[in-house]
Amino acid sequence: MTQFAQTRPPRSVVADPWHQDFSEQIRYAAARLLGLRLISDVHERASELGIVLPVGKKRRKRLAAVQRAGMLFVHVPKNAGQSVSEALYRMQIRHNSIRYYRRAMPDLARLPSFAILRDPADRFLSAYHYGLSGGQPDNRITHGMRRRYMRFRSVDDALDHVEAARSPYEIDHIFRPQSWYVTDETGAVAVDRLLPMSDLAQLSTILPQLMRPIGRINCGGRKSTLLSPQAEARVRRLYAADYTLFDSLPRNGQDRADDGSPLRRTAH
Fold it and tell me: In whole angstroms, what is the distance from residue 65 CA to residue 71 CA?
């Protein structure tokens, strides 16, 4: 699974993305033109190509909430991100990479940023069961992918799907590597701080911006599944960069940052 090559046309298509609407019909057309399966990827992919697209009302509202909070949360899926978004912004933030914010929303990218990481095997199993259920009633997986995911017969089917992808854009966000969201074009971590999901309870002690306690969203019950040694080896190979990142994080408050927080500071 590889990322698209980065190309940059000499100028943007639209000069002011904050004050223009981007209709649903245009987004569908743009997704087809860019060869995307998810219309939610249109802005991300366009930013890779150096194209600044107009931002619709809903996206403007979300971006304004980030600006007001003074903290950029990079929402990695299946890592309690809905709960954190609600606590920090009182709304859901989309799954955009730090690269998108740097290219398309540089003012937000200059804010302090953080992301939550999870054990890659545990996250994969969570994504697998989430896919089998088609998502949650208020957060369904895109129709085309939902039908395929609900027909998975085993973990191996899901692993086959990820292995066959030529690009992260060919799979749903739930199966994309965590590293895809938090690194720059060279693969270096570009988010200021990374927090292991096991230390999520510590977040309220270091983020005064939190408007409410962190609840539990997208945590519906799932039956226990154990990875076979062969399947675990495949997960480790597919998500090798995630294992490297996750294994480097301090746990349970060990090796705290200079300000006493359990979050790992990352170099830029």
Answer: 9
Say if residue 219's pLDDT is above 50: no
- Contact between residue 22 and residue 12 where contact means Cβ atoms under 8 Å apart: no
DSSP assignments along 60-120, one per residue: HHHHHHHHHHT-EEE--TTSSHHHHHHHHHSS------HHHHHHH-HHHHTS-EEEEE--H
Q: Decide if pLDDT at 215 tops 60.
A: no
Q: Which residue has the higher pLDDT, 253 or 34?
A: 34
CA-CA distance, 178 to 194, in Å (whole number)?
Answer: 11
Residues 268 and 266: their CA atoms lie apart, in Å, by 7
Q: What is the signed CA dihedral for 91, 208, 109, 19, rounded to 10 degrees?
A: 40
**In contact, 162 and 1? CB cutoff 8 Å:** yes
pLDDT of residue 211: 63
Per-residue DSSP letter, 172: -
The neighbour count for residue 196, using CB atoms within 10 Å, is 20
